[in-house]
Amino acid sequence: MTQLNLRGVIPAHLSPFREDYTLDEEQLRQHIRSLAGIQGVNGIISNGHAGEVTALSEAEYVRVVEVAKEEAGRDFPIISGIVCDTARGAVQRGKLAKAAGADALLIFPPNLFGSGGTLTADMPYRFFSDIAEGLDLPLIIFQFSVESHMAYTTQTLVKLVEEIPSVIAIKEGSNNLQRYEENLRALRACQRPVSILCTNNTKLLPSLAVGGDGIISGSGSVISQLLVQLWTAVEDNDLFRARQVYARMFPLMQVFYAPPLLDMHSRMKVALQLLGQQKYAVPRPPLLPIAPQERESIRRALAEAGLL
Predict the structure, then answer these.
(1) What is the DSSP string of 10-46?
(2) What's the rounded Cα separation, in Å, for the pair 38 and 54?
(3) Is the entire prediction scored with pTM above 0.85?
(4) For 206-264, what is each residue's pLDDT tens digit?
(5) Per-residue DSSP letter, 4
(6) What b-and-e string marks burial along 120-150, b requiring 16 or more CB atoms within 10 Å of the CB?
(7) Dist CA 199 CA 193 (whole Å)
(8) What's the DSSP call for residue 119?
């Protein structure tokens, strides 16, 4: 099994679409090269929320991983998202990702977990153990927000880490500082170390001040350089510098993650278009294009952050 020690900034890339909604491979290649070339970016998430994974065909899913691996390089970690409601489906999709070049898998919770499946460790443990048994790839657990009702309990996370050796990291998106700290401290006490990668996007500085091994974020598709600066400042214990970077990020985080949250990555596409880094800002239906007045808010936030 591939050995990965995930630290630092790991952006989740977007999936560029043309105006006819087809995948724009040329723009995707450019996007991946740009992210992988940033010093301090130590991996990339493909086929995540940011990549509109549920809107991709199976062939597109595979092609996205292939392109990411080709452009980032053989030794650069590419982590592919797995969104499946069954472990069997996750194993099948994971085998496709591995054949395409993925070095690890980011496992989303099944939708049915939102109806009480995470209240105990029983269903999550069966789900992850079945995936681990069927795949020879490192696994990253995606901890959803507390508000989603799909967040694993602290005890469940500890059990998954202690008993499933292929689990190497937690994408910690509890979006609740108390739960984040409880999870962090409990996981730090495990017999086997795992990476804890913060994805509390509107709470990155306070979360990282508590602790963590890095950042996973779709916002990294636009502001990976700022995320690297934030992460480096926190690692250097330089609170003043971290606050300065966070102040630059703040207006963008406010517009990216404003309600409705489902538009967050469409807004990031607009940001890349405004920055001249992508030709189109097209989401796939049922997502809708960003309205002109909101485009202007994104433009102002980019200017306020010193990026435009």
Answers:
(1) EEBPP--B-TTS-B-HHHHHHHHHHHHTSTTB--EEE
(2) 28
(3) yes
(4) 999 999 999 999 999 999 999 999 999 999 999 999 999 999 999 999 999 999 999 99
(5) -
(6) ebebbbebbbebbeebebbbbbbbbbeeeeb
(7) 19
(8) S
